[in-house]
Amino acid sequence: MSVVVWWLVTVVMVTVHSASAGVVELNWEVEYKLRWPDCKEGIVIAINGEFPGPTIDATAGDTVIIHVTNKLSTEGVVIHWHGIRQNGTPWADGAAGVTQCPINPGETFTYNFIVDKAGTHFYHGHYGMQRSAGLYGMMIVRSPKETLQYDGEFNLLLSDWWHQGSHAQELYLSSRPMRWIGEPQSLLINGRGQFNCSLAAYFNEGGLKECKFKDNDDCAPTILRVEPLKVYRLRIASTTALASLNLAVEADCAHVQGHQLEVVEADGNYVAPFTVNDIDIYSGETYSVLLRTHNPTPSRKYWISVGVRGRKPNTTQALTVLHYADAPEYDHLPYPPPVTPRWDDYDRSKTFSKKIFAAKGYPPPPEKSDEQLFLLNTQNLMDKYTKWAINNVSLSVPATPYIGTIRYGLKTVNYQKPPGKKIVEDYDITKPPVNPNTTKGNGIYNFQLGRVVDVILQNSNVLNGRGSEIHPWHLHGHDFWVLGYGEGKFRLGVDEKTYNLNNPPLRNTVALYPYGWTALRFVTDNPGVWFFHCHIEPHLHMGMGVVFAEGVDQIAKMDIPNAVLGCGLTREFLMNRGRH
Amino acid sequence: MSVVVWWLVTVVMVTVHSASAGVVELNWEVEYKLRWPDCKEGIVIAINGEFPGPTIDATAGDTVIIHVTNKLSTEGVVIHWHGIRQNGTPWADGAAGVTQCPINPGETFTYNFIVDKAGTHFYHGHYGMQRSAGLYGMMIVRSPKETLQYDGEFNLLLSDWWHQGSHAQELYLSSRPMRWIGEPQSLLINGRGQFNCSLAAYFNEGGLKECKFKDNDDCAPTILRVEPLKVYRLRIASTTALASLNLAVEADCAHVQGHQLEVVEADGNYVAPFTVNDIDIYSGETYSVLLRTHNPTPSRKYWISVGVRGRKPNTTQALTVLHYADAPEYDHLPYPPPVTPRWDDYDRSKTFSKKIFAAKGYPPPPEKSDEQLFLLNTQNLMDKYTKWAINNVSLSVPATPYIGTIRYGLKTVNYQKPPGKKIVEDYDITKPPVNPNTTKGNGIYNFQLGRVVDVILQNSNVLNGRGSEIHPWHLHGHDFWVLGYGEGKFRLGVDEKTYNLNNPPLRNTVALYPYGWTALRFVTDNPGVWFFHCHIEPHLHMGMGVVFAEGVDQIAKMDIPNAVLGCGLTREFLMNRGRH
Asked: What does this protein need as cofactor (chains A, B) (predicted)?
């Protein structure tokens, strides 16, 4: 079977062609607001005054039209629709410098795209570190033929929060020497956390005092109010800037009849269901889990905990409450909240990742790839600036979006070469870099359409001392198959044999574990320019990403709206074109 | 004598046509930096790493070409050349939304203009509150035929500094209810101040401890090192966001042979010299003063103090030192620093203002005006937002620069009516507004060329309680004659008779005193669009300004560079023009 046919099968499988497709049209104003996200005042980016932004609720096949008005004083803004593939509308992907120019203050830009695929998605800022400033929200795309059965649902959007503002954070990270922003002050669930107080203080949790708030306080938790003997879908997304997370419910044990989580969806794709008491979730990932309620007597409340994984935490667990109907409103919970797994129990994390397989009915990936792309992840030092680099090139996103430069074939733009495709043979990933230097680059990888591409993400030791960090990699415009994870350096011609080509899950985000590798496969079936980057905001800010161009010939023929190209060299070109 | 002839005479008088005009060409990178402006770390906008930005040193007649590269992460930027009239280059005035679009991050814009007139000028950001963030520097334009005689010179750029960042300040001021930013934490001289410590601690000044720093510290003072029996020109500019200031030297008194300041220049215009021990200076103003050194025996150091006027201060005086050659480097000064005048001694301030007259040789203003424009200054409450308004309209600067809308006669733009020209007859300026409401507006005043315009700025009581604030008004693109100051409400047909039409000083900035009026006259001799606004940054941010368009017919024929119009509706128009 040829590659092209595989690709078509895949697209047909996941695309909904609804005769009754609707339109979801929204007007959004983006502006800074004073809020109390963790019971301490801070500055957030709000949408129509809401933080997090409004939840988009659409049905697969719908056209989503969002008129975004930038009400920031001096800053541009864009919004990326995380998980939406933007087939045919690559200019609506909302990645500044890649697919569009930032929307200027005082101006309105209209995003217009089809949500062709059901799933739990979210959206967020993709310019500077505006995601860290709170520019995010949920995006639910419902299936007209939903196969999951449940009685109710809750959205849980997870994020992390610093008391230092995002502008200062950007500056710290870009300073020489780099000043690290540290661990977040709080974890937020739906934009709500508790700093310096605890919902569970009466268990002497962290020695904190009890939180006092009214129900309408910014930092009062989102309570999950449930009925007995029902099934609830929890739609969970992580848009953290830094933290890898674990969400845990009270499990069955000696003193308590607890709950379980049946994982059924990941990044908008059904997975073969499996049951756990807690899930790991990395920034950029989404999950749906089904939670079956029992019938507690007397009726009571249960904890849900969210804690940090993969970095030595300095942040209290976020808490919220599963509240059975008729449970006393103000009574304390009888037991302390569950404690999420130890931060450095990586084996447990990998075990969870490896439990995820595609649900039945998804075709397997193409058997063979046409190209193999090795991306070595390193922390570097460039002219005393700390950078993250791929194959020794730290990405510097240009002011003119790639999509515009390609569309108009601007000869004035000379991109550097892309970072290279081959495995760096002599690089010892177990030690700090021998030559920590790197270069800044803006080169992109060009792919023809219909190619099957394998990407092997290779982790390595950090700049100083012994250590290796988790990097959740997110690909725009695509889902990819996660073919496997491995330890140490990828062995060319050997490790390929361990790939799961039978039922690998489709994702748009995948974790790269310390000192290990992660292999993924995707088909270049979406003409456009697509960002592929570590979803940790500071890492991206320090250059940890690459850019894929697919079908350059097709991009050159696209009817790209002028409104996305109104900056840099495309603006100059298009404005001067009219001068006679 | 007709008005037009007067105007020509004026222009000839102050314009230098130098056969040997040179070019000053500079490359600037604008970016945030961590600095210690007042011995406490803060975030400043630096130019080429310098805060304040580099001093421009040019000669009248020179062409100044500055390539400004915006290295801010997500914010636009512009630079206004305060005091330069931009004859023939109104698009280079650097007022966002008025004369140009902000320069996008990653882009370079070239300012290219002639500095036709000698004087002590400065430059600063004119977008959002970027001036508050420290985007400013000195601009010295030398006369090829300088009539002043002096042996050396020093630049003193005065500013005020908050520990709260400018983004937060903007948000506070725009919040509902408005949150006032308070008085500055420090006053800075050439970007250097001392918070929480004092150079004069050994006199128990403010109960502060003594400052300890090395000479190259960000907050070590600019020392004025002088020789005996010489004449020094101090070029003093105030770019404060809020504070009105007084600069005082140690005067002659029982224990000390002090110094005097001979005021010789104001806003780039020579004034009839007069001698004082201290000068008032409002934001937007510049002065040159001549300081004659004597021959102290033994050689010693003298204080220079800068303190707050016109607002109840909560900020320590800024200090620096006049250091005679051979004075011991590390010895303490023998006497405490001079204390600047009491903040609310307005009579003293007015006395100083009224000492300023044009130097001999300047022609008087036109005898009569063609138009009279009354601008009532009020503090208002609009939908619970605090605003400042002119004739009950609070200015909202549009995203598309006025100059571009006019150039291309864009019919899609419907400006509101300007705020009106007439005196508000029944308004009681001595009481809080009876109807505190206002409207937001973007209307502009249109003037034909060659008109003589009188503007009467009328102050009033603030929103709550009894009080009236100082507003230093700055006009772009022009000097104006200050015809007079008065108390209370301007009496139409009466107060005009008190105007000084003989030797009024030419300025570009003038103070409006509490509960009073200030009258000025200018000639509409400069085709372009010119901002006229209160130079207090928070007041401007809250709408305290108007816009003058001069010679709309000429603007429509101007060859305005596309680069200044690359935003909003002009971008759309110019980009679409080429689509065929």
From this structure: Cu cation
Domain parsing of chain B, residue ranges: 3-146, 160-353, 371-575
Strand partners, A187: A160
| A102 vs B contacts (CB less than 8 Å) | 74, 104-105
Please name the residue that has the structure tokens 């990407």. A455
pLDDT band for A331, please (50, 70, 90 cuts): confident
How does pLDDT run across A135-156, given as a tens digit for each residue?
Answer: 999 999 999 999 999 999 999 9
Structure tokens at B155: 């630049």
Relative to beta strand B452-458, strand B445-447 is unpaired
Q: Is A398 on the interface with B (CB under 8 A)?
A: yes
**Using an 8 Å Cβ cutoff, are B283 and B210 in contact?**
no
Whole-number mean pLDDT of chain B?
93
pLDDT in tens, A382-403: 999 999 999 999 999 999 999 9
Q: Is the pLDDT of residue A13 over 50?
A: no
Mean of the pLDDT values across residues B153-174?
98
- Contact, A352 vs A310, CB < 8 A? no
Cα-trace Rg, chain A: 23
Q: Report chain A residues whose CB lies below 8 A from the CB of B174.
A: 73
CB distance from B571 to chain A under 8 Å? yes
Residues of A in contact with B107 (CB under 8 A): 399, 567-568
* CATH (residue range B160-353): 2.60.40.420
Residue B430 has a CB neighbour count (10 Å cut-off) of 12
Supply the DSSP string of B194-225, one letter for each residue: -SSEETTGGGTGGGPEEP---TTSTTS---EE
Partners of residue B565 in chain A, C-beta under 8 Å: 575
| pLDDT tens per residue across span B522-532 | 999 999 999 99
Residue B9 in this model has a pLDDT that exceeds 70: no
- Report the distance separating Cα A174 and Cα A178, nearest Å: 6
Specify the pLDDT at position B6.
36
Q: Which pLDDT value is given to residue A578? A: 67
Q: Which of residues 65-104 of B touch A (CB under 8 A)?
A: 73-77, 97, 101-102, 104
Residue B166 in contact with residue B81, Cβ under 8 Å? no
Query: Measured between CA atoms, how close is A6 to chain B, in angstroms?
Result: 39
Contact between A136 and A125 (Cβ < 8 Å):
yes
CA A152 vs CA A143, A243, B58: distances in Å: 15, 28, 72
β partners of residue B30? B47, B70
Distances (CA, A) of B302 to A193, B116, B279, B317: 55, 37, 17, 15
The sign one gets for the Cα dihedral A456, A462, A468, A471 is: negative
CATH topology of domain B3-146: Immunoglobulin-like (2.60.40)
Q: Is any Cβ of chain B less than 8 angstroms from the Cβ of A107?
A: yes
For residue A325, the distance in angstroms to the closest alpha carbon of chain B comes to: 38
Is it the case that residue B13 has pLDDT exceeding 90?
no
* CATH, domain range A3-145: 2.60.40.420
Q: Tell me the nearest-neighbour CA distance from B129 into chain A, angstroms.
A: 9
Q: How many residues does chain B have?
A: 580
CB A100 within 8 A of CB A78: yes
Beta carbons within 10 angstroms of residue B410's beta carbon: 16
Q: Mean pLDDT across the stretch A252-271?
A: 92
Distance CA B280, CA A115 (A): 63
Name the residue in chain A with its Cα closest to that of B579: A578
- Extract the tokens encoding A576: 């001067």
CB of B83 within 8 A of CB of B58?
Answer: no
CB-based contacts of A272: which residues, under 8 Å, 6+ apart? A356, A357, A358, A359, A360, A503
Name the token pair of B517: 């009026």
Say which CATH topology domain B371-575 has: Immunoglobulin-like (2.60.40)
Count CA atoms closer than 13 A to B577's CA, side-chain side.
Answer: 19
